[in-house]
Amino acid sequence: MSVLPWHTGTLAELLQRHRDGRLPHALLLAGPAGIGRRRFAEALAAALLCLEPAADGTSCGRCPACRLREAGTHPDLLHLGPEDSQVIRIDQIRDLIGQLALSRHQAAWRVVILDPADALNIAAANALLKTLEEPPPRTLMILLAMRPARLPATIRSRCQLLRMPLPSPQEAVAWLQTQGVEAPEAALQLAGGAPLIARELDADLLRRHAELFRQWVALAAGEGDPVKLAGEWIKPEAEWPIQWMQQWLGDMIRLRHGGPPRMADLSGALQPLAEAIDLQRLHRLLDRIDEARRLLASQVNAQTLVEGLLIHWSNLPRRTA
Length: 321
Ligand SMILES: [Zn+2]
Known about the structure:
Blueprint: H1 8-19, E1 26-30, H2 37-49, H3 64-70, E2 77-80, H4 90-101, E3 110-114, H5 122-133, E4 139-145, H6 153-156, E5 160-163, H7 169-178, H8 184-190, H9 195-200, H10 203-220, H11 226-233, H12 239-256, H13 267-275, H14 279-297, H15 302-315
Helix pairs in contact: 1-2, 4-5, 11-15, 12-13, 12-14, 14-15
């Protein structure tokens, strides 16, 4: 089982440590969505479970263990995630501890993949501590988290943190081309640099982004009605528009600091907008957008949120050139 190209080095390193008998009990894979963390965890698990691994330590794909794993029925590969709610509950952890107390089914390793670890509630996290500290022999716990800072410190301190950043744009674009994505640069920028998200974007979404950006720039020039626009923007959903505003603002701030923008194609339009606004005000609006993204997840009225942001944006004091 292979990982995405930007993860091959990291996997090779871990497998070398595995061969040297230096693999930690628990790994915390942290990084943004859409970069292949899950696939990485599965490939690492596959390598550990395989009975006849290749010379580089990766799984063979043919042995009985690999076949069981591919069928989703390997008894020594355990997946844990939220079931009917948003959280991983304490009884799920108790079940896991019970299963780990039994002996392994096959001679190799046992792997537990906990995804997302951010979903552990407090009681479940506490119940897991002892297992993380003293897991049964030849057992690897892999925890996946988008925001490891949200995990209790007691959990984090018992895991070895493996940060998985966004791949470089060059690597990501090269891979998107192999996936048949038509406009890989534009899709990648729109996805905030996450290649797996970029692969799913379609041409309609790219067009919608271009149109909203044009309207947003026009608002800064006093054209357009923010309330009316908000009504249009939230159809069919408000998530993308809010994320885009976050990216545009982030790029404006980067441009002000002389850094490279994420959405290079837009920098020509963003630069003069950024120069005309006080930097602190840009930061304040970005904070407000971050907050709006969080609120959106909790079913707050999308029209009110987007309207508030667009009014704020259109009313910002601007220096005229
Ligand atoms: Zn195998």
